[in-house]
Design a protein that fits this description.
single chain, 3-stranded mixed β-sheet, globular
């Protein structure tokens, strides 16, 4: 069974805690991604920032994205997966936490991101269908 390291996207760009959300949104657009890891000055993962976070927690609340930092949206410890964890563990973690993207950690270093699409490309159809169903069961 493949590991997170086998199926992850290794080229990861972080948004810094102190970066404003307008800059973060521009970076997402440039990279064509819907989420970026939030990294501190110590290069440790502080959370994940999604395009949905920007829309729901900032724009919809009437806040100016130029005056809100990525760090303000980092909520507690990010859900992660170890680089050597297998695909079954990736599926379990995504389903349990209802997330579509998992930062991949090797020790304390961020080494990649595993998205549902990465899992879908590397596993048989049924486990991926079960994962999509589990993630979609939000109340």
């Amino acid at each position: 069974m493949p590991t997170a390291r086998d199926i992850m996207t290794a080229d990861v760009t972080c948004v810094r805690e102190q970066d404003d959300l307008r800059a973060a949104a521009r970076r997402m657009a440039e990279l064509g991604v819907g989420a970026l890891p939030i990294c501190g000055d110590d290069n440790r993962l502080k959370g994940m920032l999604t395009d949905r976070d920007i829309v729901v927690k900032v724009l919809a609340q009437g806040k100016d994205p130029a005056n809100v930092t990525a760090g303000e949206l980092a909520q507690g410890e990010a859900v992660t997966i170890g680089a050597d964890d297998d695909a079954a563990e990736i599926l379990r973690t995504m389903g349990q936490h209802q997330v579509r993207r998992l930062p991949v950690i090797d020790g304390h270093e961020l080494v990649g991101i595993v998205a549902v699409a990465d899992v879908a490309r590397s596993l048989p159809e049924r486990p991926v269908g079960d994962l999509i169903e589990a993630i979609s069961e939000r109340s």
